[in-house]
Amino acid sequence: MDEIFTGNFTQQEPIPEAAIEAAVAVLRTGRLHRYNTVPGEAGEAALLEEEFAAATGSKYCLAVASGGYALGCALRAAGVRPGDRVLTNGFTLAPVPGAIAALGAVPVFVEVTEDLVIDLDDLAAKADTARVLMLSHMRGHICDMDRLMEIARAHELTVIEDCAHTMGAAWAGVPSGRHGAIGCYSTQTYKHMNSGEGGLIVSDDPDLMARMILLSGSYVLYPRHRAAPPAAHFEALKYDTPNVSGRMDNLRAAVLRPQIATLPERVARWNALYRVMAAGLAGVPGLRLVPRPQAEAYVGSSFQFLLPEHGPERIAAFVARLAARGVELKWFGPAEPAGFTSRYDSWKYAPVQRLPRTDRVVAALLDLRLPLTFAEADVAQIARIIASEVPR
User: Fold this and answer.
1) Does 238 qualify as catalytic in the annotation?
2) CATH 3.40.640.10 residue spans of the chain
3) Contacts from 14-23 at CB under 8 Å and sequence distance 24+?
4) CATH architecture group of domain 17-258
5) Hey, which residues does 43 pair with through a beta bridge?
6) Domain with CATH 3.90.1150.10 in the chain
7) Per the similarity annotation, which family is this (predicted)?
8) What is the pTM of this model?
9) What CATH number labels 262-389?
10) Which own/partner pairs from 36-44 qualify as long-range (CB within 8 Å, at least 24 positions apart)?
């Protein structure tokens, strides 16, 4: 009899007890707004920023309402204006080009490789057409960041890293988000720290961070930020920077702070699940795994593979067979978006562009979550089910 998987791909771990207790303590005060503090009190949001900056080795940090807000705030701080061209990956999620288009700027897509990272040759060819690159480490895959930053420096590109899928990851020992001018993270439920919604921004540039703090809605309360640049950087900007409110509140910050210390342990558990899946699918005819470079310290919270030898009808049937056996795969191939699987040609607010290499990749690409509520035995079973259904 065929195996059936009965687990839930969207069930996350419970919020840690320490975070629940911290959140209840904030609720008891009634002071949820980040600036609603009493004399001598730092506030949970300010402490979260200080602790996350230390964890990433960044000088400055800002906590905001969502990962998407973080991207838009970073773009504004970098000086992106209506009509400006902004480079980004052809394979990413809708909030990335959405943040660009929301400013009236123009997303310019760069090809991606079969390894699911930005095509650095195509980036070099397009680098002179824009001033900013919003680099998406999509589904946790990190490109050769040393070469990318060489290209960026040669063409005077400001790099903003979208690290929604790479909190806790690194390239050549440098944490994801610390290569470019700005790193943006998400703390939405399906990310590596969970506050339902939320975002974090890091930077070593005092003027960029001062501008982002002002944009986020600090009014003249920026001295209450602990992971912030000196006041002089705000004085030069405070009358010319619009308030685009997107602050994180103290309640969500309280939920997140205890999760910083436990992130390395969760990363180790995700990667253990990832290795079980990779071992279970290794050598399956017609199925291509995505290699992980030696310099990449990844976070395996999701898993991707390709069926490059099969057309859309066979892949659609494969996905349907797995769904009947309890395995939820997301396929990026269909022209019509389904959930988060939209593609660059789905975003009609961007000008029509053609990326033939990216088209070939996403047509064959399948994706699944590896929540920490799964045991290694669960993942081994999922791998067996997938392997048994791959078209021969």
Assistant:
1) no
2) 17-258
3) 15/194, 15/255, 16/258, 16/259, 16/262, 18/258, 19/254, 19/255, 19/256, 19/257, 19/258, 19/259, 20/255, 22/254, 22/255, 22/257, 22/258, 23/251, 23/254, 23/255
4) 3-Layer(aba) Sandwich (3.40)
5) none
6) 262-389
7) Belongs to the DegT/DnrJ/EryC1 family.
8) 0.97
9) 3.90.1150.10
10) 36/250, 37/224, 42/224, 42/226, 43/224, 43/250, 43/253, 44/250, 44/251, 44/253, 44/254, 44/257
Query: What is the distance between the alpha carbons of residues 88 and 136, in angstroms, rounded to a whole number?
Result: 7
Strand partners, 136: 162
Which run of H or E residues covers position 136?
strand 132-136
Closest CA to 148 of 295, 36, 289: 295
Helices and strands (H, E) in the chain, number of each type: 12, 14
**Which residue is it, tokens 């590109």?**
157
Spell out the residues 6+ positions from residue 193 whose beta carbon is closer than 8 angstroms to its own: 167, 187, 256, 259, 260, 263
What pLDDT, on a 0 to 100 scale, did the predictor assign at position 89? 97
Strand blocks (E) in 332-381: 365-369
3-state helix, strand, coil in the chain (%, to 5): 40, 15, 45
**Separation between Cα atoms, residue 260 and residue 243, nearest integer Å:** 29
Q: Which residue is catalytic, options 59, 126, 191, 330?
A: 191
Which three-class secondary structure state does DSSP give residue 364? coil
Return contacts of 263-272, CB within 8 angstroms, 24+ apart: 263/55, 263/167, 263/168, 263/192, 263/193, 264/168, 266/168, 266/192, 266/372, 267/168, 267/169, 267/192, 267/299, 269/372, 270/299, 270/300, 270/301, 270/370, 270/372, 271/298, 271/299, 271/300, 272/376
| pLDDT band at residue 341 under the 50/70/90 scheme | confident
pLDDT tens string 156-195: 999 999 999 999 999 999 999 999 999 999 999 999 999 9
For residue 87, the surrounding DSSP H or E stretch is strand 85-89
Radius of gyration of the chain (CA): 21
Cβ atoms 369, 276 nearer than 8 A: no
CA distance 140 to 2: 32
196 C-beta neighbours (distance < 10 Å), count: 12
